[in-house]
Amino acid sequence: MVKYDDASWHYGGDFPKDLGEENAATHIGMFLGWCINNDLISDELKEISKKDIDDVKSRKITGSEFLFKACDGKFIHNDLSEYGQEFTNGYYDDAQSKFAKKFCDYIGDFTDVFCEKAEKNGFEYETLYHVENTWENYDLIVEKLDERFIQWKNFKKK
């Protein structure tokens, strides 16, 4: 089993004491929510979590809420289709992949997108865990995810 990420990995150690553990899942949930909305999830996850998936698609719950409800805070390869796994393997958390070396990895993009947002609005995020789990922020990172997905598909063809 490949585990891409786990909220519990983040809320130990240096995790900010002023934040709830759910903040450890914001970046994971935004990526997983994007996977749900782009039908990159596995048939198994679709079967066992149909209502929750529909709730993400209709914005009744966020991707990070889904992560805790349906996935016990863990983002694993079985959550994704084969195609979703391919993209995630090259982009999510592997700065050493050929794709990420040429473009970027997800955490780098997440950090850049929200640092840019903060700078434009005259503030600074203390950590990536301080990024608010909102649909407005999801919409910001989705632009970058959509761009990277297109780049990845073109990169893969070469």
Number of helices: 9
Quote the distance from N terminus to C terminus: 28 Å
What coarse outline follows from CA principal-axis ratios? Answer: globular
Strand residue content: under 5%
Spatial extent as radius of gyration: 15 Å
The tally of strands reads 2
Elements, N to C (H/E): EHHHHHEHHHH
Q: Can you give the mean pLDDT? A: 94
Biggest sheet details: 2 strands, antiparallel
Could you say which structural class the secondary elements and strand pairing correspond to?
Answer: mainly alpha
Low-confidence stretches: none
Strands side by side in the biggest sheet: 1-2
Percentage of residues in helical conformation: 55-70%
Descriptive overview:
This protein has 158 residues and is mostly helical. The chain is 58% helix and 4% strand. It contains nine helices and two strands; from the N terminus they run E-H-H-H-H-H-E-H-H-H-H. It has helices at residues 7-10, 26-37, 43-48, 50-57, 63-71, 82-91, 98-102, 106-120, 135-157, and strands at 3-6, 74-76. Strands 1-2 form a two-stranded antiparallel ribbon.
